[in-house]
Specification:
alpha+beta; Elongation Factor Tu (Ef-tu), domain 3; Threonyl-tRNA Synthetase, Chain A, domain 2; Diaminopimelate Epimerase, Chain A, domain 1; 3 domains; five-stranded mixed β-sheet; 8 helices
Length: 394
Amino acid sequence: MLQDRLYYAQPNCKRFTTQIIKNVQDEDGEPYIVLNQTAFYPTGGGQPHDTGTINDVEVIDVVEMNEEIRHYLAEPLEPTEQVDCVINWERRFDHMQQHAGQHILSAAFVELFDFPTVSFHLGKSLVSIDVKTSDVSDEQLNAVENLANHMILENHPIEVKWVTENDLAAYLLRKKIQAENEIRLVIIPNFDYNGCGGTHPESTGQVSALKILSTEKHRGHTRVYFVCGKRVLQQLHTKTAVVKEASQLLSAPEEEINQAIEKLRSTNHSLEKSLREAEETILQFEASELINTQKDSFISATFESHSIQQLQKLARFIVAKADDAIVLLVAKNEEKLQFVVAKGNLVNASMKTISAAVLPEINGKGGGNDTFVQGGGDALVTAEALVQLMKKSL
């Protein structure tokens, strides 16, 4: 029977001795054993599996398959009848805290706002539930968090009852239960009644604390990220370290970090604007210089590390001042060539002719229209050679 399994019958069992009834490999050659009785919890119901050791061999996975609980091992176990099993209790108790915290948080959402939980995920660092609402306000989150921590602080018992389908009408269940026989209810009296196959501490006080961290939209619902117990301290430690470092980098007290960041953002915007203006001034100067050195209808130049955006601006500046010119600009950026070709209003040729001629020479791609084209590809030729190919194409 389910209720006879050690992880249900003795949820605080950390070490036990039992017999092996199967010591084999699966179809992929991975070693696993099946025990006569086990306190190792298999993955299920949103809760990850236990880890630990069996005769000092690491247990790396526990799954229930084909009506047996398989304990996958880091290496094959020597044949023996009796084994000494040790649960990784820090991991198990963390899972118990997070799972019980989820029950409390989900019940608080229903109690205050009638938002049921539709899914639950217990991750390595964060826990999340999806609540059935498209939007949750900060005020609602604060209210739910306060109620959850109030229930934790009051240290209510967390009871487990095994019932049948006929018994369910006596309980105010949070959600419908699909099972028929051996139904396991996890109960916080007068607050939460829920069918659950996970492990939980004996009282809400053992959850220690619950903190909501963030929310996001997810498939029409709201995903709520939170942590419980020791994970709250871990989050606090991480965030304290980040705030301390930010305070030092900004040379500002922790309580003034927001103002310092806003000032930094404002300064950054001003610098970006100044840089854009300076760049345009330089490009305007370059355009004038190239026009003044024009010897024929072509105005060409090659560059190192000019961006495609800079080439585009420069070409537009030139054709705005020289309406009889064809502009050929090429830049080499690492092992790539990029080019921009443009024409003035008095030129009849199509710039697509040029890009169609040179793109195959550099395994490139490009686009544009008769007046303005751009493209890029591999540096299979020099920038100067590409300019000459452009000229020959016309």
